[in-house]
Amino acid sequence: MSENTLRRGRPGYDQQGILDVAVAAFNEYGYDATSMGVLADRLGLSKSAIYHHFTSKDEILDRALDSALSALEGVLEQADASTGRAADRLDLVLRGAVHVLVERLPSVTLLLRVRGNTEVERLALARRRAFDKRVTALVSEAQAEGSLRSDLDASVVSRLTFGMINSIVEWYRPGGGEDADRIADDVVAVALDGLRMPTANRVEDLLG
Amino acid sequence: MSENTLRRGRPGYDQQGILDVAVAAFNEYGYDATSMGVLADRLGLSKSAIYHHFTSKDEILDRALDSALSALEGVLEQADASTGRAADRLDLVLRGAVHVLVERLPSVTLLLRVRGNTEVERLALARRRAFDKRVTALVSEAQAEGSLRSDLDASVVSRLTFGMINSIVEWYRPGGGEDADRIADDVVAVALDGLRMPTANRVEDLLG
DNA sequence: GTCTATATTGAGATAGAC
DNA sequence: GTCTATCTCAATATAGAC
């Protein structure tokens, strides 16, 4: 909701309006390569007008990353609130993450590219790591209850699965015919059931 | 081979020696955020000494990206040279890509973060897109011959699968106990067979 | 092959008027 | 809430000596 809010007054920006334009530019050129000058040009403002709304370029990044992280953390909260089996809760997390990714594509894209150069970035990375840890715990639980195969390491599984989900930001574009539900179905289909035709030869046969 | 070459003369760098240090720094801070100054510090050289070996910062990037792209394209060449079924050739491509990723981790990591800001970057992205297109064609072929399930779009399948593979650069670190073969096995296991325990309830039952 | 300058450009950020 | 003008610093790159 916060990311697609329309500005109230026509002339003059509020924080959210500037944020939307800034995040789009950061994703296009990269955060470091986006100067306050080109940002001002895109907004049709002067550089100093931006500083009326944000105290620094860093603060713009901070706000954007918080939007993505809050949404992702919300998915875990919702899943933890459900009382189902670990496999059910994991399913909710995977589908929920795809939805967050699609609905907050700009800020999540930005989050996934953060390297940890500044304090703001390091704090965001720490929140991401905490998220990953909780997902890994959920995978372990699902393995322990017998819902997921146990021959793969839980952290490798959660990393590969979220690697697949996160890669969606590289190609998904809104209005391209595929909606979030369909993509979530595809992700869960590949992650849980795999690509192989049930009737085809197994890899063991193919590779010896 | 080219990326781990030891320098011949002890004092004084050759191009490869500078390249290794530069790529490591680019991956740590991001290309744009890495100045020639910190690069010089890491090398124990002055900035101008670097310009003796490379005409520009851009040229350093160009060399590094070419290393990654050549290796990945080589994987496709090898697979195309084999005469097996499409499913077998796809298997070779997936495992080969994991190996390239692990063996040329620095340059591939750099490649995966390129945004397309400069001509050098745009050319690299074009080569990446060509690679992806050939992989998608291979997936289609495997679907047509009945080796892979056909209810998923071939381009979505190849994107998700390579999203999983590419995400390895985010967490794999050499000497961490897991070797490339093991990771390739895990990737192929998840991609082809999925995570679900064969005997467990199916998703349809879980979600209604 | 490396150095000490230095030229030049553009960055993030501020002052103060309107 | 936005502007013009400017400060300050750091960036890429070059010149020319050793």
From TrEMBL, chains A, B:
- Record InterPro entries: Homeodomain-like_sf (IPR009057), HTH-type_TetR-like_transc_reg (IPR050109), HTH_TetR (IPR001647), KstR2_TetR_C (IPR041490), Tet_transcr_reg_TetR-rel_C_sf (IPR036271)
What protein name is recorded for this chain?
A: AcrR family transcriptional regulator
UniProt GO molecular function: DNA-binding transcription factor activity; transcription cis-regulatory region binding
Q: Mind telling me which SUPFAM superfamilies this protein's record contains?
A: Homeodomain-like, Tetracyclin repressor-like, C-terminal domain
- Gene3D superfamilies in the record: Homeodomain-like (1.10.10.60), Tetracycline Repressor, domain 2 (1.10.357.10)
Q: Where is the HTH tetR-type domain?
A: 12-72
> Which PROSITE patterns does the UniProt entry name for this protein?
HTH_TETR_2 (PS50977)
**DNA-binding region location:** 35-54
Record key words, sorted: DNA-binding, Transcription, Transcription regulation
